[in-house]
Each structure stands twice: as C-alpha cells, then as structure tokens.
Specification:
2 copies of one chain form a homodimer.
Chain A lengths: L5 H8 L3 H9 L7 E2 L5 E2 L2 H15 L4 H12 L5 H35 L2
Antiparallel strand pairs in A: 1-2
Chain A binds a DNA duplex (30 and 30 nucleotides) through helix 2.
Amino acid sequence: MSLYTISQASAEVDLTPYTLRYYEKEGLLPGVKKDSAGRRNYQADDIQRIGFIKCLKGTGMSLKQIKEYGSLYAQGKKKFEERNAMLESHKAKILLEIKTQKKYLKMVEAKIQMKI
Amino acid sequence: MSLYTISQASAEVDLTPYTLRYYEKEGLLPGVKKDSAGRRNYQADDIQRIGFIKCLKGTGMSLKQIKEYGSLYAQGKKKFEERNAMLESHKAKILLEIKTQKKYLKMVEAKIQMKI
DNA sequence: CCTTGACTTAGAGTTAGCTATAACTGTTAG
DNA sequence: CTAACAGTTATAGCTAACTCTAAGTCAAGG
C-alpha cells in the first residue's frame, strides 16, 4: 500500500525531496499520505499527478496557476467547464510556444550558417 | 545617425527601458552610443543584437551565457570555433525542447479528451 | 526665466522557484 | 543499547531577471 518514500518518489519523478515538500506546502499536492511516524508515502496517483504538474510547469504554467487548476480538479464535475477552458487556453499557449521556438531555431541556424 | 532613444528602442524591441539599461549594465550590450547629454542612442545594429539576445533568451539561454557568447563574438575570428560550438549545442537544446513541448502538448490534449 | 518631461545614475526592492540549515524524531543494523 | 540513517518541521537564504525609487541633469516650449 505504501508505494514510495520521499526519496523513492524523488528518484521516480526526478525532483528533489526539497521540491516535493515545497510543492506540497504550496498546495499543489494535497492529500499525500503519511505513515505512523509522519513520513510521506506517495501513492501511484500522487506520482501521476506530479507527472502532470511537470508537464504544466514545463510548458510555462506558474505554480500558482497549477494550484488553481488542481483546486478546480478537486471540485469535480461542477468545475469541469472552467478547468477545461484552462487546459484549452494552455494548449493554445503551448502551440504558440512551439511556433516561437521554431522561429528562434531558424534564427540560430541562420547564425550558424553565416560562418563569420 | 542617432536612430533610437531608449523609449523608441524599448517600443521597437518590446522590452522596458529598465530592462535595456539592465542588459547594458550586465554587459550584454557593449558600445551603446550616448549623446552629448549622456542619453543612449541605439543604432540599427544594437536593435539587431537585442533581437538575437531575445532569441537566445527565449530559448532558455541565461543572460550570463548570452554575455559569454557576446564576448566571444567581440573577439572575432579567433574565437569562431568556440562561438559556433556554443550555437550548435544551443541548437540541440532547442530541438530537444521542441520535442518535449510536443510531448507535453499531447499530454494536455489527452487530458482534455478525457472529459472528466 | 521657469517648468515640464524624458532622460541619467546608484542602489534598493520584488517575485518565482527552489535549496539549504537547524534541531529534532522514529527505524534499523550491529 | 546505541549509532547511523532517513525522514520531519519551520524558517532562512539564494539566484535570476527584472522593476522601481530617489535625486539629479538637460533641452525645449511658453
């Protein structure tokens, strides 16, 4: 039942234990279980959640917004619309970002090509 | 000859005057001309340089590294190899980043598709 | 001449996101 | 039994990249 200690979770998701505790303190990981000695026990769905947090963060969403998304998620079906709108607008942002990165890639390639 | 005041340059490159002065102070913009009253006059090539700085920064290069690149650039042909290596490795980084963004995009799309 | 406004400088303050420290506690190997 | 170890909390410190403030300068319009 107790799947991961903090150091195992840390290794699994490639974030330091500091960061995991920090995320929890910031409200991004509500409901992480603790054992009788007060030590964190990460479950499979915590790991999954962290994976999605990394996805959102890696695409430029702030921790504050991720927390907001999480709280909408916690409120279930009644907040589905709002939550989905958030994801849709984030998706648009990612698409734009990819486009920008491609433009910048071309600029760097051009600079390399110059050979000066 | 005096092409842009700081506020005109600011509008042109979409960075605040604060940021332009900060970049200069940090050594990213050496040789910006000043008029008799000590006010900055940005030339066309300063604007171009800022454009490339934005490109490097927008693809995740730190100001410190950008400054380093700039100083290699200033040393001309003898540092060409080093400078180009920097750009090549940065290019690889951008390619990887685009790949990651695409992966994350898929994750977000999948989450949207779930409709839960 | 006087005010206005855009500029100057040095340096302080802010924000995000960690990262580390100190002091402590419970588990385990010898 | 005890020493080492892996965890805990609260809180302080750090870095990057701005962002702003204060006090002052200068050129131009009325």
